[in-house]
Each structure stands twice: as structure tokens, then as C-alpha cells.
Amino acid sequence: MTIPNGNILVINSGSSSIKYRLIALPQEQVLADGLLERIGEQESRIIHRADDSGRLNEIKQSVIAADHHQAFKAVFEILGENCSVDAIGHRVVHGGDRFSGPALVDDDTIASMRALCRIAPLHNPVNLLGIESCLAHFPGVPQVAVFDTAFHQTMPPHAYRYAIPETWYSDYGIRRFGFHGTSHHYVARRAAEFIGKPFDRSHLITLHLGNGASATAIANGRSVDTSMGFTPLEGLVMGTRSGDLDPAIPLFVEQTENTDTDAIDRALNRESGLKGLCGTNDLRTVLEQTNAGDERARLALDLYCYRIKKYIGAYYAVLGEVDALVFTGGVGENAAEVRRLACEGLSRLGIAIDEAANSDVTGAIAEIGLAESRTRILVIKTDEELQIAREAMAVLDKDHA
């Protein structure tokens, strides 16, 4: 099974949206991409861009998408009956410790993904819906699952284990998995290429900062630690997630307010983070309110950046040397003030920002560190869809060999 000049359709099926991109490999040309959002609402919308002589022309239209089945029907219709798809790559959030790399979709892969729904109830079921929809619409077309957790499966036990009763690990599989692995992997390789160092000899700290946020320590091209844990709740402060906190706090609140675990889960995942601190999960709004003198917004920004700085320092200690610090994700790529505050005071670690370069970032990759600094600081535009397409192609070529 090989598709040396194939078109890879990349599917990212979320709880209320579907992202897709059609990529021609090996030239890595985007033929089409789009987003269907507001699944389950009264009026859903699709934004579709199709290649027209090297340019992506955009179409916006309302669609009926009461559920994911109708949503995928709308996506397939706008792609068109004559759309040439040679293989499909799916983003899957949780691969547990079963998958350390991408996997060809078969009955065994689907069964394993289904079993993981108990620890990823918000993500894996809709990821599976995407796979099932594509299997039905593209019969005989090979499909590959690419897992957010896979890149972090190289972590050593002392990094992925928790200091909890052994039976919690042996019976329930409770351990650190980490997420955003596809993004961390992509930008880490781009960073190594940019600084001219072999990936398998590169020491990097990558920061994926968006509504969800995570940090990863990479030694010799392998993830050795990451901030998210058993779930995406642990680690950095995020848009609506708390990040690290004393595990006794949920127990205290549950007992004090006589509430239930669902309410605690909702509070920590949907009502905390920046939103809990200042009422909004949009970092752009936080920055605007901070500049207007809002004290709650100022605290939220300071806490957000302080947590990033703590992880930079911790991962510097883990790695011993750092070739480059990489910012990516919607916030990491666009928020100069966040980058500045996160690196402030780290010059003794060889991390120092060039203020002019930091305020004028353009293109897919930019360098924002002072020239004389020991550790290079990069801003890299992530491309998870391209990484998924590459990994899908690699699996199919290997399967053919």
C-alpha cells in the first residue's frame, strides 16, 4: 500500500466542529481546507477554501448539522464527488499507552480507541465518529489514526508515573500521558532544521499556547516530560482550565458546597483558568483589559505567564542544556507580551528576548532572541494537519514495504 503522489485528507473531529484539509504529497500543496462549526446548534456554518490555480478561494455558507453524521455529510458534499482522496489521516486525542506512533485503522485500532473513551470521554468518541463516517463514505481508502499522546510515549517512568497507590496505576492505568504531541513534534522538527542541528541531537523546550496550553521538554528529539498529565487539565494555566492545583482543593469544595463530581469537573475544566480569574478565556481580551488598567486581568496575565516561566525553568533543569525555546499555538504565535513576560528575568539561563524582533514577528518561523544569547528563542507557526498527513504517509509506506 503506497501512494507516492497521493492526496491525504486530514480530519480533526471535535465536540462541536470538524476541521479538514486535503494535502497533496510529497509536494505538500494544500488543495482544500475548511471548518464546519456549531454542530448541534440551530444554524451551523462551514468555511471552505478550495485551490484555484495556487490560491485558496473561500466560501462561507450555512448548513444543517444537528449531529456529527449530518456535519460529515455536509463536509463530503462541499468537497465534491470528484474529490480525489488516496488516504485519510485522523487526529485522535488519546492513544493511551497502547499507541506510541500513528496506526493504520483496522478493527483492532478501533476497538482500542473505543476502550480509551472512558478516560477521554469528550474527545475519543467524536474522533471515532470521524473515522466511521470516512470508512462509510470512502470505502477501501486506507486510513491512519495519529494520536496526540503518541509523541510523549518516550517519557521515562520517573516522568510519567505519579506517586499514588500502585493499584491505581496497575489496575486503572493512571499515569501522565501528555497531549498536543502532534504540534510539539512538528515545531520541534522545524526548530531543529532552522538552527541547523540534527533532530536526534536537539534539546528543546516547546510551548504550545492556545486556549489549551502545554510545555514539553525534548532531549535528543524525544519527549522526556510534558506539563499535561492523565488528562489535559494538568500543567499551565489555560483559557478555561485551572492547570496545576493542590489535589485536596476539589475535595474541600465538594464537601464545603455539598456538590457533586460533575460540578467540580465542570468548574475546573470550563470555568477556571483565565476565565475564572478575570471573566474571559480570550487572551486578546485579557491583554486589552490589562492595558485599560483592569486589576483582575493584570493578575490573570501575570499568573498565566508566571506559570509558563516556572515550566521553562523546570525543563531547563531537566534537560541540562537547551538549544532553543519555541513558542507556538494561537497565543504563542501572536502574543508578544506573553512571550516577553514568560522570558523576563531568565537571562542567566541564556534566555533573553530581542524586544524589536519580538514585536515584529512575521512568517512561518521567526527568531526573537538576542543574538548573543546561549539559547535561541523561536516563534514557529504550528501545522498539525501537515504533520498528520506526513505521519499517515509514513505508516502507509511502511505498511507497503
Automatic annotation (TrEMBL):
Homodimer. Pathway: Metabolic intermediate biosynthesis; acetyl-CoA biosynthesis; acetyl-CoA from acetate: step 1/2. It comes from Methylotuvimicrobium alcaliphilum (strain DSM 19304 / NCIMB 14124 / VKM B-2133 / 20Z). One of its GO terms (biological process) is acetate metabolic process. Pfam families: Acetate_kinase. This is Acetate kinase. CDD domains: ASKHA_NBD_AcK_PK (cd24010). Belongs to the acetokinase family. Its main location: cytoplasm.
